[in-house]
Amino acid sequence: MHHDEAAPPRQLRWFAPADQPAFEELWRICEPHLSEAWAATVEAMRNDPALGRLVLDLSEEALSAQEREARESLRAAAKGDWTRYEEFLRGQGRWCAELGLPFARFSQSTTRMADRMAGHLVQELGTSPRLAPALGILHSLVVRALSVLGTEY
Asked: What is the pTM of this model?
């Protein structure tokens, strides 16, 4: 390649290619439950003294737009490109930091959602040997997401 040619954009990856099947299984099982998990998380945040103002100041339309962006960015990640999801998380982190919300409290909403997703994985996979890799990917996803959110605080 000549140095004057533009390099193709590089996709951001969160997992090794060998882990992609486990992520795809996680996505297949959990994606149908995202709206329910999102709604439960928003409701828990509304009832939290520190986080309530985060969602109380938002219209239902704005909350729906955030849910849509979270879903669409995760859908792109399921296809192997994490760039959009990471941008979404960075935006969420900046927004919470600007509002002065404690990171520890905000991170609880992320882990609450992951707990719900873990329940769906266990319910569907039961004693299958595929359960451990799917739970491992969920754990890695949460750790990485919290890391990205935290960089904006």
From this structure: 0.82
